[in-house]
Amino acid sequence: MAAKFLPTNQLASWLAELSGQYRTLVPRREGDAVVFRPFEEAFAPELGVRPTMSTKASVFPKCEPLMTFKYEKDEEDPGKVMVDVTERRDDAPAVVVGGRPCDVAGFFTFDRVYNTEKIKDLNYLARRENTFFVSLACEQPATTCFCNWVGGGPADTKGADVLMVPVSGGWLMEPVTDKGGELVASLEDGKAKEAEAQAVKDKANAAIGDAVDVSAAQDKLLALFDDAAFWEAQSSKCISCGTCTYLCPTCYCFNITDEKFGMEGVRMRTWDNCMSALFTMEASGHNPRPTKAHRLKNRVGHKFSYYPSLHDGNIACVGCGRCIKSCPVSVDIRAIVQNAIAAPAPEQEG
Ligand code: SF4
Ligand code: SF4
Fold first, then answer.
1. What is the pLDDT of residue 348?
2. How many A from CA of 64 to the centre of ligand 1?
3. Which strand (E) or helix (H) includes residue 22?
4. Do the Cβ atoms of 298 and 279 come closer than 8 Å?
5. Quick one: which atom of ligand 1 is closest to the CA of 241?
6. What is the pLDDT of residues 153-180, one digit of tens each?
7. Which residues contact 187 (CB under 8 A, 6 or more apart)?
8. Burial 323-342, CB ≥16 within 10 A → b, else e
9. What residue owns the CA closest to ligand 2's atom 2?
């Protein structure tokens, strides 16, 4: 499919055109943060910096109603109560413009859990199938980026429908899927910008540097499972704020709550946070992960060891670096993984 050119001064009109057909989300600056919001002409999209939030909420909202329910007493037999349930499913077509290649890659971590032969999360799938991504290539990777350690790259197209590459005067829009071709069909031909776009991608790929081999992490993190001293040292700075989980494009845990108003109610799904002490608190008061060392071990171990062991070696981290950049005390997941790989093998008992 032919690449197209989007001049800077036509960005707003192209987004307005998309908005006529799709719920169109773009990065918008709000105070110190850059978050995804529906496009509005009054707010220029912020495409110059990496968004604070990932694109995760476009497919997996922070908070969503799964169903409403209503109790009705049988008039003839008041001891009997009927429950009327209405499922809620959002399959309105959406386009997300300006997420980064690592953001889109994050959805593959979800797919392996919510779209399996045995388990189909219908709410997730309705949005996943109807959400299209115009990813923006990273011209200059940040010092916190490490997508190339986990199989990605600054101009990776996996999961994207269009790759948007910054060039002089605008962006080269490279369709990846047929849907992507449709999204950029109205734009002008981009052939004249292709060589420049390739140079931008080559420069970004070179700038991110050599990948560190983390393939040993899967076995090594498991071997360190009972090494309390190791995990206490790695987690000593952590203040259990949960920022890392909320910003992560691959954290997929959720909680379910029923909110009842008299005889009616709504079942809500909300993001959960494994760095919170309440995450594993049981009704008895027992907590199998009572300390922040237990919780950080779980977060890192899940992404680099337990998940890969269940999903053909795929790591549940896309190297976006958000958990490093936004951690208030600079806990660095790269350092923890490397420390685990370098740690002496624990002594075998017996
Ligand atoms: S963002 Fe940092 S301090 Fe907060 S829970 Fe995560 S590792 Fe701990
Ligand atoms: S663990 Fe950190 S670097 Fe990896 S995907 Fe999540 S936020 Fe990004």
1. 66
2. 25
3. none
4. no
5. 4
6. 999 999 999 999 999 999 999 999 999 9
7. 4, 5, 6, 10, 14, 173
8. bbbbbeeebbbbebbbbbbe
9. 323
